[in-house]
Write the structure tokens for this entry.
Amino acid sequence: MTELPTTWLTQEAFDRLTDELAFLKSEGRAKVTAKIAQAREEGDLSENGGYHAAREEQGHQEARIRQLTAMLENVQVGEAPVGSEQVTPGSEVTVYYDDDPDDTDTFLLGSRELMNLDDSVNLEVFSPQSPLGKAILGHKVGDTVRYNAPNGRKIDVTVARVAAFGL
């Protein structure tokens, strides 16, 4: 299995995700199991909408548990290194496109889960595994990199700014 890059989280964000995982593994599982049991008592499972809905809910919940578990296994609690000009997961990055230096994008290189922790932050999120994320990961301010867009087009971008993202 491919090791995921480290994601930086504040203690508060880490605690919220840990609490959510603990809830889903205990009370969440118990509630959905009870829904499934109750729906089974209603009879024929092939035509039981409540049963199928509860099973679907269980599937979503188990997927969320796996997602949180994987994320929390690859997390660094604290603050991302301050003053680092190197692009790392958890960085807020600004790039400009070499074919149009006035065209810039600022985004979080990390997980959408980080953005779900603070609704007041309005920032696009690129995964470190995305084509652009992979290309700029480890590069510094001023570095120009080329990556293949999903449509196959080669795009050159220059890292203009890197800042720690503070959730």
About this structure: The chain has four helices and seven strands.
